[in-house]
Amino acid sequence: MQVLLAVMKMVRSDLKGLSLVLKLSKSSRESFIWCRKEFVTMHWYQKAKKKSAILLTGMLLTSMLPVFVGTNTVYGAEVDNGCLAISGVGNVPVTSVERNQLVTINYTLDPSGTHTVMQTRDAVDIAFVADVSGSMDYHMNKNDSKTPIRLDILKSASTTLTNKFKTVNMGDRLGLIKFSSGASKVLDLTTDYAKVQTEINKLVADGSTNIDDGLAKAKTMLTASGTKPVKQIILLTDGKATVWTDENDGNKQKSGETSAANAARADADVLAGLGIKVYTIALATAGSDEIDLDLLQYIATKTGGTAYEASSASQLSAIFDNIAKTIEAPAQLKTVTLRQPIPAGFILAPGENASNVRYEAATREVVVNVGDINFPFDQDKIDLTIKLIPDTAAGDYPLQDAKVTYKDACNANRQFNINFGTQLSVSVRVVDKYGNVYIGNSQGELQRLRASDKQKQWTINKKKVAISDIHFIDTEIHSIVRITYKDGTTDQFDLKPTAPGTYELVDGNGKPISENGWHKGPGNLRLVSGSSTQLPSTTVYANDDFQGAYLAGYEISVDNGNWQSQTTNGVVIPDGNSVNFKTRAFTNAISGSAAIPIAGAVATGNVSLDSTGPMISWSHNIVNPTDDGIIYITATDNLSPVTSVKVWFDNKSLSISSSSSKMTKNGNTYAFRLSDVAGFDTAEKRQGWHQIYFEATSMGGTTTTVEAPEYFVVNPGLAATLKGMNYNTGDISDKPVSVAVVDEKYPVSDRTFGSHIEHGFTLKNMYYVIKQTSTTPEANGWKPLASKRLTVTTKTNTTSGTYYVFLKLIDSSNVEMVQQPLIVKFDTEQNNN
């Protein structure tokens, strides 16, 4: 009768409730009668947080009423019908946002309700795998002896687990495996929970940590228990996996953290395939490096279990209680999903959202996959966050309700909405890379606010149309701002300085360079000026940042080299043909920091400079002084062409230059004859020692002069006359003729050029030849002439004939000169006629 009253109260308090019960189907009525019979055998029901208990019978009857149960979506307020439920709220902390700034939407889901468990559930086989390695004999905090021993914590807290199974008395079996360097079965699966606790209390710590073997032994225990029971493992450890068992090598125990962890992961993969869930418990102080939390998380997640951490007996006891409840009353809120419609132009903030947050383009919704929520609930509330970026024009955008859908613990589809009742207001605002803010409003005004204190610097208003977009053309520097108006037109503003308008360039002599061509180097570039802001003339300035304090200085680059700040000394321009140079102004106003100067437009120029004189050399060709000699001057320059050559002779008393029509040019060589020089017009004037002194000038205006004059000689050679002593030319002698060397001439004498003396040449040797022809004697025909006399007579047995007497003089410079021969005629018989 009490059951009937409970049903009547939950459905309706009048007679219609009774009629509803009476109209139940036969199977429903039979279930109703069964519930009455089973009421006295029901052990307990689970009650979630903050919810008051209701009668189990009422819960059961409510779950049978079709108005609450089924596959149709249920809207409206949730009722605690024993199937669990979720409610939720949301908020937007800031609704007035700037474009490209984060919009955060917060949600809080509140899982709640009760779930009933009956004795008729399947029994569960649980293998408790306990770490008894040597470290389990440590204090909880191994550096603090006041904290309890870890194995003692396990023994104390495990009573919660064994007592819970004893109290529930659902036929669940509990087995015990211990592991250290290896693992062994302590107690097979049993319902004698007190015996299990007794064996736990006997555990002793020693050895290393072989999680691999512990899980393997648990798998063997559970797979041997048959196929019907639900199979689960509770794994407790206080350290990292350091040992593993190599089944491929005779089950040898091997060391190595990496290999041991990988072996444990492989065990988890196998257990997951068998449907065996593993609950892992890390017994360690918070932040301890003694334990591999990643490994334990992997094992739990892979097998569908839960990873826990405990650092005290009370925490471990609570974990055991929670695991027991999960085993005793398995239940879930399944596929919990939150769907939030977002306004057009809003996107998920890149890199800001959790991995379970995605955008669904087809519905224009952000979908948050919460997943399954296990009962008992691990946390009171579930906080979710969506972070958006408004990538759109200015305006007000209503935020629609979020929708949360899920399946309750009775597998019914449920849904509720989270109402915001607000709108997101977006302004067109852009922050550059330096932190300066640009704001465009509906009146077409563009304002810039300084990064450091957000003080307004200037306002530009070119047209009275709302600004819908602001962006930077140069993504690296953020110095060119383009705005787009609502009507689709655009304006663009370059914040950099204009190119310099003036500068001073001087040559190597400090004279201004005002024309193209070659100039004496090196040059110097200085006094650069003439830059200004490029903002429109209608700009309204709010401070001096872009006016008097706008220009921070000028820079110069030479020959595409690094930029150098201009100083009072200027920048040197080196030698070269058409050396380029560039100038520009820079400002600190764009970045707002002297550490980040921004350069403006560039002015360019070039100049040809030469600071080194030509290379100069000379040579001569004087074969026969009477025929004149040729002087060659070779002048070259690596940069600018040679423009003039000048030559001086004999203490600069005589000269000739390339401007003279007498000097000819062939490539880099200038040539002239000595006779072309005024004062060398006759052979007599040219003979003897001479001083030569020369220089060359390039187009760059640089002259090279020989450091010291050089000397050359025009030597016609010695001269003399052969004279018959008792004979006149043309006579016919009837007797031998005595010939003497007379009228000797030495054309090259000593000559002084300032302090320099060149010595003349003297007679070195004389040779003669007497022959009857006038042809020049052969080289081997000459005979030394020891004195300056010789006698000419006829040949033996000859009474008449003509003889030519040749004389060769060699001076001290080895110049040979053959004199005109003396002709002697003989007739020794003329007086006999």
Overview of the molecule:
With 833 residues, the chain is α+β, with helices and mostly antiparallel strands. β32 (551-558) and β33 form a beta hairpin. It contains 11 helices and 56 strands. InterPro entries: CLCR (IPR051266), VWF_A (IPR002035), vWFA_dom_sf (IPR036465). Keywords: Membrane, Transmembrane, Transmembrane helix. It holds the Pfam family VWA_2. The chain crosses the membrane at residues 53-75.
How far apart are the termini? 205 Å
Structural category: alpha+beta
The coarse silhouette is elongated
Radius of gyration: 59 Å
Q: Main sheet?
A: 7 strands, mixed
Helix content: 10-25%
The oligomeric state of the chains shown is: single chain
**Total beta strand runs:** 56
Task: List low-confidence stretches.
Answer: 1-78
